[in-house]
Amino acid sequence: QVQLVESGGGLVQAGGSLRLSCAASGLTFSNYAMGWFRQTPGKEREFVAAIRWSGDNTYYSDSMKSRFTISRDNAKSTVYLQMNSLKPEDTAVYYCAASGSISYSYSASVYATERSYDYWGQGTQVTVSS
């Protein structure tokens, strides 16, 4: 059974930083592309960042790429999202996702598409106070 478990969310002041982690189990992690999405109440899930299976290419939402960094440790089956200079508008539930079908793709649009992903975590709340 595939499980993706996010952690590291919480309450932070504007301008602060958080590092989210997503630990995967039940799959061969190094075969999967990984992504981060976020969602606020009443809105659709929004792409944040993604990384190829090897970590050699990363993809970001334009609005976040200067502040967020995605990375992965295949030995630990974990993907990370380092978030700096946080803003109140970054407040959301953050989800990690895994895809076995796009892991060898280099298409940014594919990585940014929610339906490209096969498995999802339960989400972790990030709240940024002003």
Features:
single chain, 130 residues, mainly beta, 7-stranded mixed β-sheet, 4-stranded antiparallel β-sheet, 3% helix, 47% strand
Question: Could you describe the 3D structure shown?
Answer:
This protein has about 130 residues and is mainly beta. Helix content is about 5%, strand content about 45%. A hairpin with a 6-residue loop joins β5 and β6. The protein is globular, with a radius of gyration of 14 Å. It starts with a strand and ends with a strand. The model has no long low-confidence stretch (mean pLDDT about 95).
Which helices and strands, and how do they pair?
Layout: E1 3-7, E2 10-13, E3 18-25, E4 33-39, E5 46-51, E6 58-60, E7 68-73, E8 78-83, E9 92-99, H1 108-111, E10 119-120, E11 124-129
Parallel strand pairs: 2-11
Antiparallel strand pairs: 1-3, 3-8, 4-5, 4-9, 5-6, 7-8, 9-10, 9-11
